[in-house]
Specification:
Coagulation Factor XIII, Chain A, domain 1, 6 helices, Immunoglobulin-like, 4 domains, mainly beta
Length: 556
């Protein structure tokens, strides 16, 4: 029983070249000397002896291992099934015998003659010596796995078919043969996702580029619809799926990935890639590709999410102070993504400028987001010098730690200014009894009421008269007690206030020392009108600040 295969030629532009049918008339050389005459011949009317010889390339769409559908385009790694078909060419002219073979693009040749050989082929039945209606015969199938990566073959993969050692039925049997070839366009595609590996802080946006590449054609109109898939790890995708451009052999699109927590995210990509092999905008074949790492496909993209870098800006409050003041600190945390944790404030005393020893004061403040944080309790400065604050943010899973190190927050603490006191000349004149007394705090003056002013001030001068009631007098003839009651103004008032100032300086916290008072008065007398009023004003103001003793001589 003979098989019959009717080949339907594929349709479509330049691709029609890929389905070549060889129709050979008169291709058989008649070699009567090579074969003996037979007792039979073709029927009357067989005037032109010949045959048709065609070839088909098929793919398996039923997944049963048998080619069933003609094609002009295949992808790399796809199996092509080849057949050849031999048929008589002229009415009443028969052909018979010989062998059929196929040589695939990889130059592998296989005898594909059906079992039982090639019978007499003619139509209608009964013509000549051919009792059956056998117009043609189709070979067994020969399979070949397309290799688009072979530069010597791609993009056109060509196979050849042959009929050898057959004969035709003429007055004498003459040898006959035929050959033909057929080509298929081999296309391939790949998909990549980039960058392959990258690191980003949490909370930021990361772009992933999906690229499709086509060989043997271009991306068809409408582009490729690429889908990113989060295989593992934190985060979420957006602008997904994305659509590539079209018209070239390399097109791409971008999806976005972000995460609010640390970790490692693995993202793969896949796409049905429409391929246009003759650049007419239509899809000739669709190739499914994924980032499986096979062939030219990349592997998945790996994204590492790292903690955000935070910033801690501090401001001591106050930055200058006096002993007894309360020292506090503040810190502004920024750059974090919903930061949690704590800020630890440490205060180091002046004896520890490098902040190496135990802190004099520590406060830990909880953190809930970016913003300003302050110490609540603070520390009362107990010594003068430069204190140092430090502030340390602990960080958390999504935010790096940060700190304000030693030396960035100095606080200069000084001794408080003395609370000066001064008693008037009248007070000292009326309370000579406390000059030599020793109070519990031992601050009573030690000048004797009879001490001469020339001795107390360290120089002697004539104090001019002022009216009949205020005669001139030398300092060497004037005791401190007398000076306190000296009448008059100008230089006489200066002497009076200098006596009180000496007693004030010797007994309490007074703006002028004994030495300073001596210098001030000596210069005033030396320059007379030039500056004695300034000296008088300074000493009078100091004497009138407020007395540091009560009426009984007790310190106030």
């Amino acid at each position: 029983m003979h098989r019959q295969f009717l080949f339907r030629k594929p349709v479509g532009g330049p691709l029609a070249l890929a389905m070549v049918t060889a129709f050979i008339f008169g291709a058989v050389a008649l070699m009567s000397s090579a074969a003996p005459a037979e007792a039979h011949q073709n029927p009357v009317g067989c005037t032109t002896v010949g045959q048709t010889f065609s070839m088909a390339q098929l793919i398996d769409t039923n997944n049963d291992g048998v080619g069933d559908t003609p094609t002009s385009v295949v992808e790399d790694g796809q199996t092509i099934y080849y057949t050849v078909t031999l048929a008589y060419a002229s009415p009443n002219c028969a052909i018979q015998g010989g062998a059929l073979s196929i040589t695939d693009p990889g130059t592998n040749t296989e005898d594909v003659t059906p079992a039982g050989g090639i019978p007499c082929l003619i139509s209608p039945a009964g013509a000549g010596e051919c009792p059956l209606d056998n117009p043609s015969i189709t070979s067994d199938q020969h399979s070949y796995v397309a290799d688009c990566d072979d530069a010597t073959l791609a993009p056109f993969l060509t196979a050849a078919g042959a009929w050898k050692d057959g004969f035709n039925h003429q007055a004498t049997h003459s040898p006959a043969s035929a050959s033909t070839s057929i080509s298929v366009i081999c296309v391939d595609a790949s998909i990549t996702i980039t960058p392959a590996r990258d690191t980003n802080p949490v909370g930021t946006n990361h772009e992933l580029t999906i690229t499709v590449n086509v060989s043997g054609g271009v991306v068809a109109s409408g582009g490729a619809n690429a889908t990113a898939t989060k295989d593992s790890g934190p985060g979420s995708l957006s602008n997904n799926p994305c659509t590539t451009g079209a018209g070239s052999n390399t097109e791409s699109c971008i999806v976005n990935l972000t995460s609010n927590v640390t970790g490692i995210t693995v993202v793969s990509a896949s796409s049905p890639i429409p391929v246009d092999v003759d650049s007419n905008g239509t899809t000739d074949i669709t190739l499914i590709r994924s980032t499986d790492g096979l062939g030219d496909n990349s592997g998945p993209a790996v994204k590492e999410w790292t903690p955000l870098e935070t910033t801690l800006v501090t401001d001591p409050n106050p930055d200058t102070a006096e002993v007894g003041d309360t020292l506090n600190d503040s810190a502004t945390l920024s750059g974090g993504l919903n930061p949690t944790g704590t800020i630890t404030f440490n205060l180091y005393a002046p004896g520890d400028p490098s902040c190496l020893g135990p802190a004099s004061h520590t406060e830990v403040v909880p953190v809930n987001g970016n913003g300003a944080y302050n110490t609540v309790i603070g520390f009362v400065a107990n010594q003068a010098g430069t204190w140092q604050w430090t502030a340390d943010y602990s960080g958390d899973a999504n935010n790096d730690a940060s700190r304000s190190p030693c030396g960035e927050e100095p606080v200069v603490v000084e001794e408080p200014p003395a609370e000066f006191t001064g008693c008037t000349p009248g007070f000292w004149k009326n309370h000579t009894d406390i000059w030599d007394s020793k109070t519990p705090t031992d601050i009573a003056p030690t000048f004797d009421p009879g001490t001469l002013m020339s001795v107390a001030l360290g120089f002697d001068v004539l104090v001019p008269a002022q009216g009949k009631q205020n005669p001139a007098v030398r300092l060497s003839n004037l005791t401190i007690e007398d000076a306190l009651g000296l009448g008059g103004g100008n230089l006489r008032a200066l002497v009076r206030h200098s006596a009180a100032a000496l007693l004030n300086a010797d007994s309490q916290s007074f703006p002028f020392s004994v030495g300073a008072i001596k210098t001030l008065v000596q210069n005033a007398f030396a320059n007379k009108d030039a500056n004695f009023n300034n000296a008088l004003s300074d000493l009078a103001s100091a004497n009138e600040i407020g007395c540091g003793f009560d009426a009984h001589g007790n310190p106030i």
